[in-house]
Amino acid sequence: MSLKRIISITLSAGLVLGAASVSAEPTGQMLADTCAGCHGTDGVSTGPAAPHLAGMSSVYLVDSMNQFKSGERASTIMGRIAKGYTEEQYAAMGEVFAAQDIPSADQKTDADKVAAGAKVYEDSCEKCHDEKGALADDDSGILAGQWLPYLQYSMEDFKSGAREMPKKMAKKVKKLDDAQIEATLHFFASQK
Amino acid sequence: MKKFTRRNFVKVVGGTAAVSAVGAPVFSIASGTKKVVVIGGGTAGATAAKYIKRGDSSIDVTIIEPNKHYHTCYLSNEVLSGHRTMESIRFGYDGLKGHGINIVHDMVSGIDAGAKKVMTAGGQSFDYDRCIVAPGISLRYDTIGGYSEEAAQMMPHAWKAGEQTQILRDQVHAMKDGGTVIIAPPPNPFRCPPGPYERACQIGMYLKANKPKSKIVILDAKKKFSKMKLFMQAFDRHYKGIIEWHSVEETGGVASVDAKAGTITTGKGDTMKGDVVNIIPAQHAGSIAKTAGLTNDSGWCPVDHATFESTIHKGIHVIGDAAIQKPLPKSGYAASSEAKVTAAAVVNLLNGNQPGDPSWVNTCYSIVGPDDAISVAMVYNLVDGKVAKIKGSGGLTPMDSSATDRAREVQYAYSWFNNITSDIFM
Lengths: 192, 426
Hints:
Chain B: Residues 165-281 form the Sulfide dehydrogenase [flavocytochrome c] flavoprotein chain central domain. By secondary structure, chain A is an all-alpha fold.
């Protein structure tokens, strides 16, 4: 756990304690079930664009929600909803989704792009997105079997600057052309 | 003994050890299968049934619903524009049967809250430990002169999806270019507050592409409405010269209709002819709620927000559009959220636990043009026993959101539809 994360959790825990007398504390399951209308039952999305939450690490979910809340990560609606929860509540939801198996989106991908993307993946992505994007413990989100439009939106936001890329990723992405990036997204989306 | 609930029983006698002292009949009640009867297999009822089973599969759950299929109101406006098929908004009950839920196709005729019994028109009777009433809305035809269920065959409300949606769709598609569509949105409170205005946009999309000389006149019973600025922006952006909206202050709304002549008369006395007339009348809770004595003077059902248990009849929970849930809206997502809170409470109560602390969300999309959708969202918690908006959360799509974001919201609206319907029926 990074120092930054420890500090931010400690700070928000302090805020939660301060507010505890005002509001009740729903269970993680209660909180997670409210996500299902857009992200699917147990976080398994039926698509076409809203991402699966199932299988991702709690740390990744908490980080993402904090970034949505602050606006650091661009969104259409997620930031507005993220503002309704505390960091402890993100973590409680995160535990529920982390306990689920990683799903695979039922979608078409282009076989040629998948093959080309596999090569890019090995050269540029594997270090941080281990096991073809299916390792929750690397806290880099679950890319394997994720809905393709969601992966495309994410990359558009990274490239436009609406969402900041980690330095290592920015360095790698800079060297890739649009076709290589698209191929890599097909590779992740095709994972079963 | 009046207050001798199962929970008290466990507390008092300490479980099964005391069986011989208390006697076999009490034991058989205490250990017998707990029964929940859900009245209405729409968004709220079906979700509650499924989530009770998820929470405790030993609970016997029965849904009583007259129809073999449910048509979602959400995205039924896309059927009007031709962007969606009727089949895509039609759902059956096989998925719920697969979760072990009993499905009974019959019409509930009454609830005996004292005897904890539900009676049907088909002559069946169902005992319950807890009952969930989710009947949706009833349409108050008598609030508009000359309007009736029969008149709705000619001037459809299309506010309960299905046959009514088909009638309105067929009328719009058969209309000549240069025709006039009249839409009369109802006064508050009503099911799906942004729905009439999304409907104008969806019909507008069809007319703009196919019959561009036509127009849509909205004669509102209100002076403002949900997502108003965003809709006005959409009317201006996509449907200039096609959609015009008139406040109740201007026209007095639609006071009466002559369905055969195809005319409406406003509250200010002006008569107008429409080639297609969509009358959405004022609403109350679904009629069984009134029959069962669950409504108050407002025509809706007062509930304890912590559990959505009726404040009139104990042991009966009312969820979805029929309940008084403000500040939650009468929307599909809110109905689903209320159902989950209630399911958790029912499972806990039937197992002798506290109902648990609730959390609700509403998320609602309106597709207002090609690659253009807008949304509203809110997160709610329980404060002093009432549903409360969490300050700083939620809100609307920004007026200046980019074309990219608007296009993404369309895809998220479709994701919303696919996921919520799977969450309910699969």
